[in-house]
Specification:
The complex is a heterodimer of chains A (about 250) and B (about 220).
Chain A: H1 2-12, H2 21-31, H3 35-55, H4 68-87, H5 95-119, H6 122-130, E1 150-157, E2 160-162, E3 165-168, E4 173-180, E5 186-190, E6 208-213, E7 218-224, E8 229-234, E9 246-251
Parallel strand pairs in A: 1-4, 3-9
Antiparallel strand pairs in A: 1-2, 4-7, 5-6, 8-9
Helix pairs in contact in A: 3-4
Chain B: H1 3-26, H2 40-65, H3 81-106, H4 110-140, H5 149-180, H6 190-215
Helix pairs in contact in B: 2-5, 2-6, 3-4, 3-6, 4-5, 5-6
The chains are: A alpha/beta (about 250), B mainly alpha (about 220).
Chain lengths: ~250, ~220
């Protein structure tokens, strides 16, 4: 009888599913998941999330509530698990589906995304590489008249440096103090070539990040002034230099 | 077609039926003939969903890396938490109707299946409407995909999600048509299950997007 039914099914429709869905169907029907209950749980978790955001709206800075972000992420993971386990019924399905899904995400996805995050933040890495001086990099010619180290202070905000013109002597040790008076992060990048050969270094993200200033802070850093010429320093947060956040440092 | 041809064809059909009966009697009748014992179409959907997870994780990582690098008044401040919250509830509800649709066909209620699928598609369309409202608000305030870092990352991320919702709606419409034409039955509803898996995944992505864009 059982075989006859199966025979009829398979011949009635050429696209019939010979898969394990019958067994699985039984499993799910036996488990009787309360889908409406899952929806109610998801709705309550969402309401809690929204309330947390409304009650503790502070983004960053002094007023930030400690634990707000981890709590929100925890609630999100809980919601995601409810959807995966019940609505996508991995809880009742063959473990192999979970393995294929989990292995795909953990083995390929996670390393890929993590390396992507690092690749997308090249300025820091570039500056670390430049610290010791890249091999073959031209050292500034020692200048006996370079003078003692000099500290240049400037402000950065959307989207400008103030002052926009700086000066130093070739070979002189220059310290940069960048005060961020804007509402987003800014930095100070010193290009490797003067304006004569590289008028817009930000187009190729050329140069070294000397100082990084998060909101309402002072970023400090230093470099040895290169060969004489005008250099177009800039902020390499994407879009900032294009919006006008660059200036000239004249090296004599 | 000649009578002989017809006879030949009928004979072939009987022959293949017989072979099937024999093979089903030998092998376990209720099981797919695959090395894993699983239905490979369903396995494929799960592998596809894993790859989609990586795709959206990359876009989310991009959004988070560039988060806070655009002044709020040039982007984030124009988002409305109310619209996004309503959209979240709409999409969660559509997941419920989808899973209830699958449950209906599992117990053979085809009319209920079609009704719930229609409801799911409508909720999906409503979600897209909310997203259109949100996009309109941003664009009238001068924030679009090429304005700044926020615009670029936000529109890419939510745009791809919206496209997935739109594809999901088309998928559901195809399921409705198939059900109306009799292609889906109590014991042949894998198509509903696969469409459902995709739809729940799209909902899942929104669960995470909602947190990282609107809440954090």
């Amino acid at each position: 009888m059982e075989q006859e039914q199966s025979f009829q099914r398979s011949t009635a429709d050429p696209h019939h599913d010979p898969g394990d869905f019958v067994a699985e169907e039984k499993r799910i029907q036996q488990a009787k998941p309360n889908y409406v209950g899952v929806f109610v749980a998801l709705a309550i978790l969402t309401a809690i999330e929204i309330s947390i955001t409304l009650i503790f709206p502070s983004e960053e800075g002094a007023g930030a509530t400690i634990g707000r972000v981890p709590l929100l992420l925890f609630l999100t993971v809980a919601k995601a698990l409810l959807v995966i386990l019940y609505y996508m019924h991995l809880k009742f399905d063959s473990r192999l589906y979970s393995y294929f899904f989990g292995a795909g995400v953990l083995a390929f996805g996670l390393p890929f995304v993590i390396s992507m995050i690092f690749l997308m933040s090249p300025p820091q890495l570039a500056s670390q590489r430049h610290e010791g001086g890249a091999p073959g990099e031209q050292r500034p010619t020692p200048n006996p008249n370079a003078g003692p180290p000099v500290t240049l202070k400037l402000q950065g905000f959307e989207f400008e440096f103030d002052p926009g013109a700086l000066a130093a002597n070739s070979g002189q040790v220059v310290r940069i103090e960048l005060q961020n008076t804007g509402s987003v992060e800014h930095n100070f990048v010193m290009p490797s070539e003067p304006v004569a050969t590289l008028p817009e270094p930000w187009v190729t993200n050329n140069g070294t990040v000397i100082a990084k200033a998060p909101v309402a802070s002072v970023g400090k850093g230093g470099f040895t002034a290169p060969a004489p010429g005008d250099y177009a320093f800039y902020c390499n947060v994407p879009g900032h230099a294009l919006a006008g956040m660059h200036g000239i440092i004249s090296i004599k | 077609m000649s009578a002989v041809g017809k006879l030949e064809k009928a004979g072939d059909r009987v022959g293949s039926h017989m072979e099937q009966v024999v093979s089903e009697a030998q092998v376990q009748p209720e099981h797919a003939e695959t090395t894993t014992g699983l239905d490979h179409r369903k396995l494929l959907i799960w592998v596809f969903i894993a790859s989609e997870t990586i795709f959206f994780a990359s876009l989310m990582a991009t959004y988070l890396v560039f988060r806070g690098k655009t002044p709020p008044q040039d982007g984030l401040a124009h988002l409305d938490l109310n619209v996004a919250s309503i959209n979240t509830f709409i999409l969660l509800a559509s997941s419920l109707t989808m899973v209830l649709a699958l449950q209906s066909i599992e117990s053979g209620k085809k009319g209920r299946l079609i009704g719930l699928l229609i409801l799911t598609a409508l909720l999906g369309a409503l979600f897209l409407g909310g997203q259109a409202l949100e996009y309109n608000e941003l664009i009238t305030n001068g924030v679009s995909i090429d304005t700044n870092l926020f615009g670029a990352t936000f529109f890419t991320l939510t745009g791809f999600h919206g496209a997935h919702v739109a594809i999901g709606i088309l998928w559901i419409i195809m399921l409705i048509i198939r059900a109306l034409r009799g292609g889906i039955s109590q014991h042949n509803h894998l198509a509903v299950e696969l469409g459902g898996l995709y739809w729940h995944f799209v909902d899942l992505v929104w669960v995470v997007l909602f947190t990282i864009i609107y809440l954090i």
